[in-house]
Amino acid sequence: MSKLLSDVSDNVQVLTFNRPETKNAFDVELFELLRDSLNSAKDNSDIFSVIVTGSNDAFSSGVDLTSMLGNAGNDYEEPFETCIDALVEFNKPLIASVNGVAVGGGATILLHFDSVFISPNAKIKYPFSDLGLVPEVGSSYLLFNLLGYQKASQLLFEANWISGKEFYELGLAQYVGDDCFNQALEYAKRLSNQSLASIIETKSILKSFYKEDIKKARKLEADGMKKLFGSEDNLKGVEKFFSKKK
Q1: For 96, which DSSP code?
Q2: How far apart are alpha carbons 180 and 202 in whole angstroms?
Q3: CB 133: neighbour CB atoms within 10 A?
Q4: Quick check: helix, strand or coil at residue 54?
Q5: To pair with 92 at 20 to 30 A between CA atoms, which of 11, 48, 125, 193?
Q6: How many other β-carbons are positioned within 10 Å of the β-carbon of residue 196?
Q7: Cα–Cα distance between 132 and 77 in angstroms, integer?
Q8: What is the pLDDT of residues 70-107, one digit of tens each?
Q9: Angle at which helices 139-147 and 211-228 cross, to 10°
Q10: Do β-strands 115-118 and 175-176 pair in parallel, antiparallel, or remain unpaired?
């Protein structure tokens, strides 16, 4: 079965991360599947909006550290970057339905969605200080821009779990409730009554205000990752991560 399920109905495409054994962690293939699906939906006149969710009790646990062991980590850079490019440049309504854990990359990508519908019991974590690394996908800038310096630094420095309710109260989600997927679907259908051309143009204008800031943040984050990846703190963090899983 595919690691990314797709269903299209009433001009709404639902993409479902489907690696339940890893809580929908991203490996190279899943990055590529998400990238290709977003690029395809962008050019498909039958698709008005895209909802992204996760199978079972998880949205995504982020990058699959297990699949990065040894030299395999070198295979991630190109699909990771091109997937984030597709996410950032997606021009139609992009909606997340977060039904469970969203960690690392599973949490940072949410900051690029136009709307987030989240379960109150969802658990979100930015674990980069745990792993001796820096934030990714422009999340350092987006959290700073959305929350201000002190709240952003608190989330990133402390790396604590926050609930879906707290995520909503921070202003990072549009809706919180147990029926988050159904509400996301209803919202997507309501948007289908609007002018797609207008939404695409408006989204382009809104994103233009911080396009260069995102590009700068991603460059700084990539440099920071290269500096810290394989460092003593990073190795200790990864060792601690795997020891918890045993």
Answers
A1: E
A2: 25
A3: 21
A4: strand
A5: 125
A6: 17
A7: 18
A8: 555 567 789 999 999 999 999 999 999 999 999 999 99
A9: 130
A10: parallel
What pLDDT, on the 0 to 100 scale, is given for residue 71? 55
CA distance 120 to 118: 6
Both tokens of residue 74? Answer: 């070198």
Tokens describing residue 153: 């630094």
Dmax over CA atoms of the chain, in Å, equals: 54
Buried b (16+ CB within 10 A) or exposed e, 165-194: bbbbeeebbbbbeeebbebbbebbeebeee
Average pLDDT, the chain: 94
Rounded to whole angstroms, how far apart are CA atoms 117 and 104?
A: 18
Give the integer Cα–Cα distance in Å for 155 and 161.
9
Cα–Cα distances in angstroms (integers) from residue 77 to residues 82, 161, 222, 225, in the given order: 9, 27, 10, 11
The model's pLDDT over 15-38, given as tens digits with 9 standing for 90+, comes to: 999 999 999 999 999 999 999 999
Give residue for tokens 């549009």.
174
4-180: CATH class: alpha beta
Is the distance from CB of 119 to CB of 101 less than 8 angstroms? no
Which pLDDT tens digit goes with each residue over 110-148?
999 999 999 999 999 999 999 999 999 999 999 999 999
The residues, any chain, with a CB within 8 Å of residue 15's CB and separated by 6 or more, are: 4, 5, 6, 34, 37, 50, 51, 52, 53
Q: Is the pLDDT of residue 223 over 80?
A: yes
Residue with tokens 């269903």: 7
39 Cβ neighbours under 8 A, 6+ residues apart? 86
In this predicted structure, what is the pLDDT of residue 23? 96
Q: What does the DSSP 8-state code read for residue 206?
A: H
